[in-house]
Amino acid sequence: MDFFWDNCKVNAGYYDNPDEMDVYATVTRTFITKDNAAPININPVPLEQHSVFWQFIALLLAAFIFTSIKIVRKNFFRNLSAAYRSRPIFKQLLRDGMLFPSGLYIPLFIVIVLSWSVFLLQLDEELISFQYFSKDEELRVLLKYLAGVTVFLSGKYLLHYLSGLLFKTVAFTKEYLNNSFLFSTVSSLVFIPLLFVSAFSKSSIVFFTLLIIALVIILFKFIRGFIISLEIEKYSHYQNLIYLCTLEILPVLIIYRMVMNGGY
User: Fold this and answer.
1) pTM summary value
2) 3-state DSSP call for residue 102?
3) Going along 112-177, which residue ranges are E strands?
4) What is the largest CA-CA distance in the chain?
5) In angstroms, rounded to a whole number, what is the distance separating the alpha carbons of residues 204 and 201?
6) Per-residue CA distances from 52 to 134, 211, 213 (Å)
7) Crossing angle for the helix pair 76-85 and 53-72, to the nearest 10 degrees
8) Could you tell me if 118 and 195 are in contact, meaning their C-beta atoms sit under 8 angstroms apart?
9) What share of residues in the chain are helix, strand, coil (percent, to 5)?
10) Which of 190, 196, 215 has its CA nearest to residue 58?
11) Tens-place pLDDT, residues 166-187
12) What SS3 class is residue 44?
């Protein structure tokens, strides 16, 4: 027989008394079914995926500019390689106007800004923010670094030029600035393919390899810049070293501090 006990419908089998109910008696409860329950609205929010779209566009533009220069100036990259390896050849090409022919400074400056901005964006993802950016965040951060690198390089070149006029070292300043531009161009040439691989790779090995290469290029640029400054006989080696540290290392440390503090 069936009866209700403690709000449960009990099938007691052949027992008339619930106290003598078989331990194997079946107890069923009445549950709220989907027909009686209020509908539940679930609105899932999709997770934003890691974006490399704007990095790809920036690197593609930089590669296009390099390709155009290769077509128009067939000997440009050969001269660039020779000037990078040998300072006497660098001075000769610079004197003859064959290293950076007229009209190439602006396109190469754009390439340098694009490649270094993407590099800093990936550096931000790997070592500062410790997160990958969505498409909107990627564009915002990239524009931030594009503006920062443009202002930094323009200000540094202007400051060197004005200091050359002030201390009457125009010839040495010209060589120093072109040496800096040479190393920046070479670094961009190395960066672009590696940044492409690093952007689409799930491993950080490529980026940290790129970081080591960047540090080595910066070190070589500083060493050659110091060698150039040694030829300025009117100032001591110590004064030249202080000058280089002030105009090269100090601005980098200031920007690094601003980026790490989130104020940049």
Assistant:
1) 0.76
2) coil
3) none
4) 118
5) 8
6) 8, 19, 22
7) 100
8) yes
9) 70, 5, 30
10) 196
11) 878 888 888 989 999 999 999 9
12) coil
